[in-house]
Specification:
about 350 residues, 11 helices, DNA polymerase, domain 1, alpha/beta
Length: about 350
């Protein structure tokens, strides 16, 4: 996090800033209230801080808010936003539904993980987002006040940027911040165990694991991370934690025709996840350039879902949104040609 930017900082850090500028310590609490409760985008809005102190703050610090540079709207109402950052552009996806409004946020510019089926991985990695840049995606879209849910499922691997992601979650969920329930937020990871362990220890938000194949050798062909953190080891670690109460654990499973959609795969999923309170979200594969993969037909998806459900695993087929604007799962890329 940059020292001269306020968004993302906690009350203690803001209090230290106020005192360093010769202001009363309570100014730090006022700053936190303006940044998070009142969502101020400029110092001019901070009416209970003296004009002199606002000018002093503006000379040394910036809020950290910036509007998206491009907005694209899908036929289904999904909206994709492009935000400019120090390391390049990132995308966020706003998904409105009848009873909720979800924002899919990014945590990195690009991604190091290079999963075969993901456009973000194809562009390589440019840099980690700060907590400021993550929170800015949430606060600076036009529909920010309508949001009911946040998913860390955009560009990047959140657990490859653990510290800044946890800082953003802290600002989202603490009483001094946006005061969201952690159960309105889901973080997705491909299974970087060290970061995942930190997340489970320091956050109560929901967790989603990108699984995509229960057999290690086959998963490795899709996801190079399998070599460092095998899915069997990820599941072993998860079984050490309590998911029987409020925190929800889910597994994301993109279904590929002839690759991971057989009875053999379904049976192995049941075996692998036995004893772990969880659900599986089946996701249709969205075609990306130069990758010879395709999604099975609906009948096969339903058969796969029904087998899992009949064997004790809650399973749903996720509805695709925003595919026409390259906003669906696995399609995000900061190349402006994709907007």
């Amino acid at each position: 996090m940059k020292d001269n930017i306020l968004l993302g900082k906690n009350p203690t850090e803001l209090q230290d800033i106020a005192k360093s500028l010769g202001m009363p310590a309570f100014t730090g609490k006022q700053l936190a209230e303006w940044l998070y409760k009142k969502r101020a985008a400029s110092f001019d809005e901070m009416s209970n801080i003296s004009l002199k102190n606002r000018q002093l703050l503006s000379e040394h610090y910036s809020i950290g808010r910036s509007l998206p540079s491009i907005e694209t709207v899908s036929n289904d109402g999904t909206k994709k936003y492009l935000f400019e950052t120090e390391y390049g552009a990132v995308e966020s996806v706003y998904i409105p539904e009848e009873d909720r409004a979800t924002l899919c946020v990014s945590s990195q510019v690009g991604c190091k993980m290079n999963c075969l089926f993901c456009m973000t991985g194809k562009q390589g990695f440019s840099g980690n987002l700060t907590a400021t840049e993550i929170l800015n995606q949430i606060l600076s879209i036009p529909d920010s006040e309508k949001l009911t849910n946040i998913v860390y499922m955009g560009m990047g691997e959140p657990m490859d940027n653990t510290l800044e992601v946890l800082r953003s979650l802290n600002a989202m969920t603490e009483k001094w911040g946006l005061a969201w329930s952690p159960h309105r937020i889901t973080l997705s990871t491909i299974g970087l165990i060290p970061g995942m362990k930190q997340f489970l220890e320091h956050s109560e938000c929901h967790l989603a694991i990108s699984l995509h194949n229960p057999f290690g050798e086959e998963r490795l062909q899709l996801m190079p991370i399998e070599k460092a953190y095998p899915i069997a080891k990820v599941v072993e670690e998860l079984k050490k934690h309590d998911f029987a109460h409020q925190r929800r654990l889910s597994f994301e499973y993109i279904v590929f025709e002839g690759k991971n959609d057989s009875q053999r795969h379904a049976s192995e999923l049941v075996r692998l996840l036995k004893g772990l309170p969880c659900r599986i979200n089946l996701i249709r594969f969205h075609a990306i350039p130069e990758i010879d993969l395709k999604s099975p037909d609906s009948e096969k998806m339903i058969k796969f879902r029904d087998y899992l459900s009949e064997n004790g695993i809650i399973c749903t087929i996720r509805r695709s949104r925003g595919e026409d604007i390259l906003a669906a799962c696995g399609m995000l890329s900061s190349k402006k040609s994709n907007i």
